[in-house]
Write a structure and sequence with these properties.
This protein has 137 residues and is mostly helical. It contains five helices and no strands.
Length: 137
């Protein structure tokens, strides 16, 4: 659970820093918010990875969500356009990240099933016979 909280923090800090970068063009004091935001974002992203999140999943969600939120919020704060074509592009990015996440989950399930199969005793070993000796006593 903590890996998801760290990832959410990374996204929020990154979006704040990106929006502040645009604002810093007219208010240079916001460059401090930009620097702190990006450092905090990468710190949280690293914490998410340390907590066990896969890199492809973390980076994909971080990037896609950051793009979507930054595009939407730049419309609100800066009056930048948001066209249907942009919306379709963001939907494609989010769909791609969803596929990466689903693929990662499927790989983990296959890996876990293989580990269980390797750990299970073979029928010969379970029956008490020595596989090296061919079951002779």
């Amino acid at each position: 659970m903590s890996r998801w909280l760290f990832l959410a923090g990374a996204i929020l800090f990154e979006v704040t820093a990106s929006l502040s970068l645009k604002g810093a063009l007219t208010h240079p004091a916001l460059y401090l918010v930009v620097a702190i935001g990006y450092v905090a974002s990468f710190t949280c992203l690293g914490a998410s990875l340390r907590a066990g999140m896969a890199l492809g999943v973390a980076y994909g969600i971080w990037g896609a969500t950051g793009v979507a939120l930054t595009a939407a919020l730049s419309t609100v704060f800066f009056g930048e356009p948001f066209t249907p074509l942009m919306g379709m592009g963001i939907a494609l990015i989010i769909g791609g990240v969803l596929l990466v996440e689903l693929g990662s989950q499927a790989a983990h399930r296959r890996g876990a099933a293989a580990a269980v199969a390797r750990a299970a005793p073979s029928p010969a070993t379970a029956a008490g016979s020595d596989p090296v000796e061919g079951g002779r006593e």
